[in-house]
Amino acid sequence: MFTSVLMIEKALTSADVEFVTTLHGDEPVSFHVLLQPRGEQADRLLRAIDDVALGELDEAVREHETPEGEEAQSMGERALEVSLQALRTTGDTAEGRLVEDHPLDALKAVVAEVEADEVIVLTDPHYVEEFFHRDWASRARHKVGVPVLKLFSHSKA
């Protein structure tokens, strides 16, 4: 069985589930999902810049409406459960947890704990962070000791 640690920032769509569960053909996969709910106001500026870079000015203006703190955590718990159920319906195994602090430290710990074969980072594009190699995938490549695959989600957060 192939073991993948899947880092996400929102609930998986059906297209996302199909995407990640077919990466290894018919080989069964054990997914260990890490979801970090939004909750840092510092992220708000980067998200707004990404929206402007994509020409989505309406989204940049509404960035203050994005849930933060406890509301984001509650939504994160629901998103995690939905994602785990969707992965399980494909016949793969899936377990997961919310990440509250230091996502890369949590990622490194889970990779070691489950002896992962790979890490999949599935997020929306974050152009500013990616340009400066500060996104999760770029930083994880130097930290986890297994291959890291960066994929873009099939829907906007």
Could you describe the 3D structure shown?
By secondary structure, this protein is an alpha/beta fold. The chain has one domain: HUPs (Rossmann fold, 3-Layer(aba) Sandwich). It is built from seven helices and five strands, in the order βαβαααβαβααβ. It has helices at 14-21, 41-53, 57-61, 69-88, 103-114, 127-131, 136-140; strands spanning 2-8, 29-35, 93-98, 118-123, 148-152. The protein has a five-stranded parallel sheet, sandwiched between helices. The model is unreliable at 63-67 (pLDDT under 50).
Please mark out the parts with pLDDT under 50 across 5 or more consecutive residues, or reply none: 63-67
> What is the fold-level CATH name, i.e. the topology?
Rossmann fold
* Alpha-beta classification: alpha/beta
What is the molecular shape?
A: globular
Radius of gyration in whole Å, from Cα? 15 Å
The overall pLDDT, averaged over residues, is: 80
Counting DSSP H or I runs of 4 or more residues, the number of helices is 7
Strand order of the largest sheet: 3-2-1-4-5
CATH architecture verdict: 3-Layer(aba) Sandwich
Classified in CATH, the superfamily is HUPs
Strand content bin: 15-25%
Give the SSE order as H and E letters.
EHEHHHEHEHHE
Provide the fold topology.
Elements: E1 2-8, H1 14-21, E2 29-35, H2 41-53, H3 57-61, H4 69-88, E3 93-98, H5 103-114, E4 118-123, H6 127-131, H7 136-140, E5 148-152
Parallel strand pairs: 1-2, 1-4, 2-3, 4-5
